[in-house]
Design brief:
Layout (H helix, E strand, L loop, with lengths): L2 H4 L4 H9 L7 H17 L4 H15 L13 H12 L6 H28 L4 H16 L9 H17 L4 H17 L5 H14 L1 H25 L3 H7 L8 H4 L3 H18 L6 H9 L5 H25 L9 H15 L6 H10 L2 H7 L7 H31 L10 H15 L8 E5 L2 E5 H19 L8 E4 L2 H7 L11 H4 L11 H11 L5 E5 H4 L6 H10 E2 L9 E6 L7
Parallel strand pairs: 3-4
Antiparallel strand pairs: 1-2, 4-6, 5-6
Length: 584
């Protein structure tokens, strides 16, 4: 949504005006952005869900299973994506390897933003293309730890590549064929991420309807073909595709549809998401700034409907999964950042009010996390979003007044923002996008309450690593382990598993859902306990909960392993195989 669809000033004329402007101001924006990226790459570390996947892949590989054959609660292509990142990593410590993995992810996000810039530059002014692509890239690179490298984040990166491919090549059918692969892979990241790929098609539609139709016609068969390839590539992929939804106790398929709850929970969820990524608060205002310069009521209504469909699709992914995890909405801040870039890049005059709010909201996560609990309320966050919208309204009114004065005096309206002013407003966007990376910013927000900051999460990870070191010191090097613990512990212990279910996810789910025992994957996972049992088991009583899991399963565990009694000490303990337990 830029000049080609949102302005009545010829793009060629504005491009020529842009070309005459000195680029010497732009290091003022680039240097802070590079500093923020460098700090993030050095300090972010990976989230627990990535530890889960990496722990399963690494310990499963030591048991002789490839990513095609290891269960990680993630689909085939995402497992290979993470395995590829892991294989290019190096270093003697988890922090060093994670830094390399993170840097690789940053390069992928930067490449997608560059591809988007090249495609947009063919249709929009250089300023609009640079700000839109730059904001998109920074939103991906500076994504909160909970988003970064998750399936949803990877799907957004692939969708950006897809949009770039769909809009870039001069011929529409080759463009559709080129875009079908990244969009199809976006679907394959988690299957629910099909909504993210569909959002990519809608974004193409906002620029070129014909290309969007072609892309949909080619993209759907491509996604189906990729799914078929994953089923052929992994012997258990179809089975796991059927069984994985059955172990989610919060999915709509289990809970049913309750509109009142969904609306209330959505309001709280969006506020939580905005606290972690305040650029989301700027989305309504940015949309207003864009629509205000769209010529023709029909076109404005069309683009508003496209924006509504995009927002509905982005939130539907969260609702369907039912867990209300913040990273399920990883696409929302990126969409908000891209729209912010379009709004600022195509503005007729400096949107100073909107820019001032953007700057202030860059401090929101830290201030909110440090505020008294009584002030941490979703309605306060919604109020801040309304303030951003009012700021955009003021800028629209001031722009309309300036253009009216120019017309009354027979002067040509201003065709863009002066370089110094544009740089100043752009800096506010950089500050806002960097907000989630600071130590005092929230790592986890629920119902308006900050449950954990970034600094708190990193401290917890250090404790987990120290606990894993303690367990590892009590075992011979590379002794096989049955992991009855979540991914963080598996990741840091890093001893070989014995079967294709390195982490006992299906077994643990009986704590919530007794009917999981009927699944074929549960029975296979259960056999890991006493068929060629490992000499050691790591039990996390807080995650596995012996008193809550299936009783017959726990009987089989205790028949093979001798676990320390609970004494109120560490919840994660080392169990040893009983001398009477023989491989079956």
């Amino acid at each position: 949504m830029a000049t080609a669809l949102a302005d009545d000033t010829p793009a060629e004329a504005r491009s020529r005006a842009d070309d005459r402007r000195s680029p010497l101001w732009w290091p003022v924006v680039a240097l802070p952005a590079v500093a923020a990226v460098g700090y993030t790459a050095a300090t972010r570390r990976l989230t627990g869900d990535l530890h889960y996947v990496l722990g399963a892949l690494r310990t499963g590989a030591k048991a002789g299973y490839s990513p095609s054959e290891v269960f990680t609660h993630r689909p085939y292509f995402y497992r290979w994506f993470v395995a590829g990142l892991d294989r290019v990593s190096f270093g003697g410590t988890p922090a060093a390897r994670e830094a390399v993995i993170g840097a690789t992810g940053i390069l992928l996000a930067a490449a997608s933003a560059y591809a988007l810039h090249l495609s947009l530059a063919r249709r929009f002014t250089g300023r609009e293309a640079a700000l839109t692509a730059g904001a998109t890239g920074l939103a991906l690179i500076l994504a909160p730890r909970n988003d970064f490298l998750q399936p949803e984040w990877a799907a957004v990166v692939l969708t950006v590549f897809g949009v770039a491919a769909g809009l870039g090549p001069p011929r529409p059918w080759p463009a559709a064929l080129l875009a079908a692969l990244p969009l199809g892979l976006a679907v394959m990241m988690k299957y629910s991420t099909a909504a993210t790929a569909a959002i990519g098609v809608l974004l193409v539609y906002a620029v070129d309807r014909g290309r969007a139709v072609r892309l949909a016609l080619v993209g759907v068969p491509a996604a189906v073909a990729l799914f078929g390839l994953s089923v052929l590539g992994g012997s258990h992929e179809w089975q796991w595709t059927e069984d994985m939804p059955q172990i989610n106790q919060s999915a709509l398929s289990r809970t049913g549809i309750h509109p009142g709850f969904i609306l209330d929970r959505t309001a709280d969820f969006l506020a939580d998401r905005a606290v972690q990524s305040p650029v989301l608060l700027l989305l309504p205002g940015a949309l207003l700034l864009v629509l205000a310069r769209v010529p023709g009521r029909g076109r404005r209504i069309e683009l508003a409907l496209v924006a509504f469909a995009i927002g509905l699709g982005a939130q539907a992914v969260v609702v369907v999964q039912g867990n209300w995890f913040l990273y399920h909405a990883a696409q929302m801040p990126v969409l908000a950042a891209a729209l912010w870039g379009i709004a600022v890049g195509g503005a007729h005059r400096s949107p100073w009010c909107f820019g001032a709010v953007s700057l202030l909201y860059g401090a929101l996560p830290v201030l909110y996390a440090g505020a008294d609990g009584a002030l941490q309320r979703p309605y306060l966050v919604w109020g801040l979003g309304f303030v951003a919208l009012i700021a955009a309204v003021v800028d629209v009114m001031l722009d309309a007044r300036a253009r009216a004065r120019a017309r009354s005096s027979d002067q040509r309206p201003a065709s863009g923002i002066r370089p110094a002013a544009l740089v100043a407003v752009t800096l506010t966007g950089v500050v806002c996008l960097a907000a989630s990376m600071w130590p005092g910013s929230p790592h986890l927000v629920q119902y308006g309450k900050v449950r954990m900051t970034n600094a708190g999460y990193l401290a917890g990870m250090r404790d987990t690593e120290a606990e894993a070191d303690r367990l590892r010191a009590r075992m011979p090097a590379d002794a096989p382990v049955l992991y009855l613990a979540f991914g963080d512990t598996t990741y840091y212990v890093d001893h070989p598993a014995r079967c294709r279910y390195p982490i006992a996810t299906f077994l643990q789910r009986t704590r919530y859902l007794p009917d999981v025992t009927e699944l074929k994957s549960f029975r296979e996972n259960e056999n890991c306990v006493d068929h060629d049992p490992a000499p050691y088991a790591v039990l996390d009583r807080a995650w596995f909960r012996p008193a809550r899991v299936d009783k017959e399963l726990w009987r089989r565990v205790t028949a093979v392993y001798d676990c320390p009694r609970s004494t109120g000490g560490p919840t994660t303990v080392l169990c040893t195989r009983r001398t009477s337990a023989q491989p079956q």
